[in-house]
Amino acid sequence: MLAVHFGAGNIGRGFIGALLHKAGYEIVFVDVNTELIDQINDRQRYTVELAGSDDALEVTNISGINSLTRPEDVVEQVKQADLVTTAVGPSILSKVAPLIAEGLKDRTTSVNVIGCENMIGGSDLLKKHVLAHLNPELAARVEERTGFPNAAVDRIVPDQAHEDKLKVTVEPYFEWVVDSSSLKGETLEIDGLKLVEDLTPYIERKLFTVNTGHAVAAYLGSYYGLQTINQALHDHQILSKIKGALHESGNVLIKKYGFTKAEHEKYIETILSRFANPELSDEVSRVGRAPIRKLGPDDRLIRPAVEYVEWNNEIPVDLVEVIAAALLYKQDQDQEAAELQSLLKEKGVKGTLMEVSELSEGHPLLEAVEEQFQSMS
Ligand SMILES: NC(=O)C1=CN([C@@H]2O[C@H](COP(=O)(O)OP(=O)(O)OC[C@H]3O[C@@H](n4cnc5c(N)ncnc54)[C@H](O)[C@@H]3O)[C@@H](O)[C@H]2O)C=CC1
Ligand SMILES: O=P(O)(O)OC[C@H]1O[C@](O)(CO)[C@@H](O)[C@@H]1O
User: 331 burial class (0-12, 13-18, 19+ CB within 10 angstroms)?
Assistant: First the structure.
């Protein structure tokens, strides 16, 4: 079985690659990082180490293609693949789409393409980009044969600092949940991959707990001058804000999906202990990366805040504080952080949120965030 995976980064090697290898797939990694691809081809194996344990997995039967220099090879592999996956980041899906479209257009057999990104509807978005590269007749044919099931992927894989550039240290915990209702062809048999008919509760619970909580640690951590998530977790004030924000997002999740309070509380505790794993060193700059995307209308901060207002007719004060901290986020290496600062200068807090978060004029969050922002500036 052949899997073509776009994005040989942290989650690509440390999570998706590891599970696909264990399930018996040969994996072709596609990336634009020449050093990474050269090393994959030179060594044809890499190590996934579980943080805090002696357990390690050797991922073998792999090769790599640089899509910038060998696009035709990527197309050839997509034509033959039994599974196509991505972990490139939401903003890169449009860039990998043309080669996926080219590879899918002449296929006569069915295949599934799964976007393993931190967002709601990642595979739907990839599908939209892929179909946009095909004429209506080809698009209809590809759509008939290709499944684009959405997925929730959960494993914390920080940026790596090993001398061995392929080695990746990951947390032991993982969850990969895929929407079975959109699969085409044979079912997926991958140990550790859970198929569900309704992905919504899974992806929302994950995005609005793991990623919301992590974002609080990153943005408040950065606001208070901290470098790592661990440092943020050890700050009582920040920890209490994380808990507060997770109770606000949890309030909505419980109402929408009927999780019991006790069960959701347990989920939150598990997530907090994952964040605090002393064996993982995670930078606030990685977790806070791309603040414009993270302030998007369906992402981890705005969506739970908007829904909290709708369900409770009151302001979620802790989410508001982290939204203000996200607006104040400054990071030299982060292009979106710089863009956000320019937008703020040009449009002010309300104008910025109306643009990036799509909050409509007069939305109560606008006033609340502006007030919070002024008090933190
Ligand atoms: N790291 C984590 O803990 C988790 C990450 N995710 C999601 O996985 C996705 C990837 O995240 P990470 O692995 O952390 O990022 P990363 O930066 O480590 O990996 C992304 C990889 O994509 C490659 N890439 C960039 N442009 C490309 C292109 N045009 N074609 C092919 N490859 C390209 C990069 O060179 C890099 O190797 C994101 O959507 C993230 O939200 C989801 C769950 C956990
Ligand atoms: O990958 P993103 O969406 O930029 O956000 C970083 C977040 O993703 C994760 O890497 C995995 O869910 C978290 O560690 C963190 O909350």
Answer: middle
Q: Which CATH architecture has domain 2-196?
A: 3-Layer(aba) Sandwich (3.40)
- Ligand 1, atom 31, lies closest to the CA of 31
Average pLDDT over residues 285-289: 97
- Token reading at 162: 């090993």
The mean pLDDT value for 79-106 works out to: 98
Tokens of 37: 């691809």
Q: Is 216 exposed, middle or buried (0-12, 13-18, 19+ CB in 10 A)?
A: buried
Q: Could you state, in order of their start, the residue ranges of all structural domains in the chain? A: 2-196, 201-376
Select from 13, 15, 29, 31 the residue to mutate for testing ligand 1; criterion: most ligand atoms less than 8 Å from CB: 31
Which structure tokens are listed for 29? 């990694």
DSSP bridge partners of 151: 178
CATH class of residue range 201-376: mainly alpha
162 is in an annotated binding site: no
Question: CA 209, CA 198: separation in Å to the nearest integer?
Answer: 18
- Is 12 annotated to bind a ligand? Reply is yes
244 marked ligand binding residue: no
Q: Which protein residue's CA is at the shortest distance from atom 12 of ligand 2? A: 154
pLDDT at 245 over 90: yes
